[in-house]
Amino acid sequence: MGGIGSGRLHHLGSADKVEHWRAIDLADLRRMGLLRPVVNGRIKAITWKNDHGGLDILGIVPSPRGIRFVKRDDQGKLAGLFVAYTHTPTMFGGFRKWFACPGCRRPARILYGINSLRCRRCRGLKYASQSEASHWRAQRKTLSIRRRVGGSGDALDGPFPVKPARMRWATYNHLRTVDAALQEQWLLGAAGDLGRLRTRVKQR
Predict the structure, then answer these.
(1) Mean pLDDT within 147-152
(2) Residue 3 to residues 18, 80, 95, 119, Cα–Cα distance (Å)
(3) Which of 52, 133, 177, 197 lies 20 to 30 Å (CA to CA) from residue 44?
(4) Per-residue CA distances from 115 to 5, 58, 110, 126, 182 (Å)
């Protein structure tokens, strides 16, 4: 890693996409049990594969106020960055815990960075799907629907899969209707792409 938290992954001129940055997700840390108090002084850690085939290790020291992220710098010395928690109220009188972005202090579930950690807004990052053509997005959605009802592979041809035994008919019929609309959107968009490609080829 180039610094505390995370290092940027290889990308093709798309440094503004979240998918090209390593991320620290508070929900993942909670799921992995890394927010529990340190026992016997043993520092917990998360690891990533780095660009050189090795492992980058980031130590995590949780506390009621936030998390201290610890790693060794380029000189081998331990360096740390503390990220505080912030809380927002929930509907029934409880609260939800977030990272307080070190840049803007807004609540954030995920932080990104190299030598510092910042939220998606501070980094000016977008999701790849935000710049994706609508018919490609339709393709992804219909593939997801077909897998949900037991389809396999990445093919859109063929009939809609049969209803899973435990799925309600109302749910199945709704998914089938949505699938048909998305299929139409995908086919129209793909046909448009093909037409534009043929036009370019003829102009050469």
Answers:
(1) 79
(2) 18, 10, 32, 16
(3) 52
(4) 7, 13, 16, 20, 42
